[in-house]
Amino acid sequence: MQELLGKITASLVESDKVVPENLIDKINANIKPPAKVTADDVHIRAMYIVSDQVNSYGGRFPVDEHERLAEFLVDSPVLIGHRKDSLPIARNFHAETLHRDGANWIKVYFYWLKNAEHGENLRKNIDAGIYKECSISFVFNLPECSICGSDIRQCRHRPFEKYKTDSGETVQAHFNYRQIAKVLETSLVYRGSVSDTLITDQLFFGCENNAEEKVSSGRPQFKPFQRLWDINRLDKGSNYIVLPAYESLRLIVSRSNNKTLIAASDGQGVESKTLNKYIHTLKFPEGDYSVDCRLVGYCGKERRTVGAIRSYLNGEESSVRRLEIKIADLIAVDGEDAAVLSGIERRRKLEKLFADTPELLIPAKEAQGEKLAQIVGKCITRYGVEIFECNSSGRYLLTSKKYLPAIITGRSKAGDGYRYSMECHINNELKMPVETVYSTGKIDPGDTAELETYAVNCPNEKISLSQPRIVDVSGCHGQPDNISLLLDDNSSVDERPVYTLCEKSNGVKIMVIQNGSDLSAYRLFRFDVDLLEGGSWFFADRIENYKQADDKRAGGGAISEVICRDDSMRLHLDGFLTGHYMIRPVLKDGIRRYVFYKIKTNEIANPQNKKSGR
What we know:
The chain is mostly beta strands. Helix content is 11%, strand content 42%. The longest helix is centred in the middle third of the chain and has 11 residues, at 343-353.
């Protein structure tokens, strides 16, 4: 069957920015111009070109096609009105996938020369909103029907028409662009077929600022925490300063020569219009200093996740509605590195420096070692507490759950999500490989993820995690905390059995029970957690030789008690499911199957007396 030509249009907006060096590097690496370009040579814009929403033609780019399309966009030309009789006015050099306004998008970056003929006029027309639309021209082979999966040219369904499915549900038909062969070009045109598309100057988060505003490489950087899960690891003979810990971005705010500079925790400059606008509303004292800050995002009074904060700073869809910055510690003052000072000395200097604006400081409480647990109980948030040793430079982050940071070193597509390889920092030097972790969320290599696990140990020089899951991106971008105290922490070695509730790509739930080297897996039919908690029973079939592979982890936890009798198991579960549950065999239509249900309190003593009700 012949190839099909597709054309999808989008819109252009927003103004010029300082060109980041990493994008210049991508131009030279991906386009390989005969003479390498510099930031002084080019203008750059980025357009949100296609999404996974149905467009005005009735077509849709499924999210699993986005990576392939993004690859094809690189090195494609930018034309005017799809006219092939004139030379390109610009060239696409980089594309990436992201989530914005409730949809999955492809963002493509293009550039043109400042000194080219009409180059400055092109910039002015885009920035003034004269050229507002853009379009992609591409070749694909299969318009896949969203209802029956056939070629929509050969089935009975038509885009935008409504049909009843076998389940009785009424749905509107569209087609998916499949077997995309190539991208021919992108163009500036008159009207877009995909709503909410745009060209943006928000090119990145966490870039370096220009040379004038870059944080000096000579300034002290953020000192990572030692992660803790057990407060008893701390010396009861010492004194401490305790601060509430927030889900937040760690930032360095520096004052020098009457300028306020912002950097990420690794010392690299941060560029964000939203952040800059907020920072300049604050009244920082005059002087020469750097402070360790927490950027917190709120929706009403509720603190939001680090990922939501980063989306907000990038101008993307986010639950964050306002920002608040809080200062936790002193990094440097008057050219003196505060890392050599004790915790109490740093706090006293910090309080003196911000005597006129104490509301900017995170409130702190001092505690003697024997009363530390009591003070921690008063200060702890859902994330944890920060603890500084009064008489030394020791800094600890005690998390309320078993969280640890890991740097993403690799990402591969797996089912509906990704499988990540990662590393952790030990003693600020040694990087230890961690087993791969599956997640439906997308995190770029080089970024830092926050993991939750039930146990951690280090056999054969490799970190082993029990039931790990990625909960968020980490607030300590580029400078992850030291986890050495977790590796030799006896409290982190959890020998209890664990369970995992997995979800396959078709929505089927799998209950996996791991008891030492023994693994049992059950396929649950028409499973619903709310119905389970309400007393419903669910049929299940046992799966032999089950491997989780790329199944999504929907929940899990530890098993406090397992009682096995014949082929039945009574389980006391903690975590995602909490309480006593039963898995036992039944006969249905002469076939041996299983039922899974929650045991009521008055039935725990004799669970075998209950009869199947489903």
